[in-house]
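STRUCTURE:
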């Protein structure tokens, strides 16, 4: 039995609230159970310096966790003077995931930065960030289109992410902290709306896992992402 009493293929309650940041061109407050992340998209009317003159745009992300997003206070990375390796890894993952479904030349020579700030953490912060960031990016593109900055929305597909793992010998989806901290295997899957794989991160934490177990985790993730994409679509329709 999972600590949350959920079935192995049952995700936590998921919700999206769009337009929560007044000044951002696109924003979304995403909740995966008790994991809450504010995603805000900001348009910059120039690309990064290394991309100038190439006729295409760029989508990138910055990720941070508020000091009391966790059970005990975590020191702000700005006060430490540098980003941790974990933070750098996560924000690069978010950027890669969004760029995988974006027609960058259709943006023109512009950059969009997605800030993903974890308000409350209970496992799966990176997967919640990716899933909510897609909605913030989509609304930023619609903001641009409505002002004739771009002709068409450059997004080619949805993208969402979910964690899976082996807990007490059983493959389960959407791990909360109680499961994530003791799982035998921990994995994150980034998948497009059409089912394309963007990235798989899988690690044996306690014991090695078999190819069949990896397949079981992927099957769980595919079902979970399909549900997340359906919720993204419902959020856009509301």
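SEQUENCE:
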């Amino acid at each position: 039995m999972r600590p949350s009493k959920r079935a192995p293929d049952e995700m936590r309650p998921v919700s999206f609230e769009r337009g929560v940041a007044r000044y951002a061109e696109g924003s979304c407050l995403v909740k995966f159970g008790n994991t809450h992340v504010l995603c805000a998209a900001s348009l910059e009317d120039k690309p990064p310096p290394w991309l100038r003159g190439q006729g295409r745009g760029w989508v990138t992300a910055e990720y941070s966790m508020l000091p009391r997003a966790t059970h005990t206070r975590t020191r702000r990375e700005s006060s430490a003077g540098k980003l941790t390796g974990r933070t750098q890894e996560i924000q690069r993952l978010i950027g890669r995931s969004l760029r995988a479904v974006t027609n960058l030349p259709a943006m023109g020579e512009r950059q969009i930065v997605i800030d993903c700030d974890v308000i409350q953490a209970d496992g799966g912060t990176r997967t919640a960030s990716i899933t909510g960031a897609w909605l913030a990016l989509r609304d930023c593109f619609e903001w641009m289109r409505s002002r004739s900055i771009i002709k068409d929305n450059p997004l080619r597909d949805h993208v969402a992410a979910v964690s899976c793992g082996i807990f007490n010998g059983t493959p389960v989806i959407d791990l909360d902290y109680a499961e994530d901290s003791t799982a035998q295997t921990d994995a994150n899957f980034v998948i497009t709306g059409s089912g394309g794989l963007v990235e798989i991160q899988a690690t044996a934490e306690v014991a090695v896992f078999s190819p069949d177990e990896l397949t079981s985790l992927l099957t769980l993730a595919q079902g979970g992402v399909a549900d997340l994409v359906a919720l993204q679509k419902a959020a856009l329709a509301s």
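REMARK: The first helix runs from residue 77 to 80.
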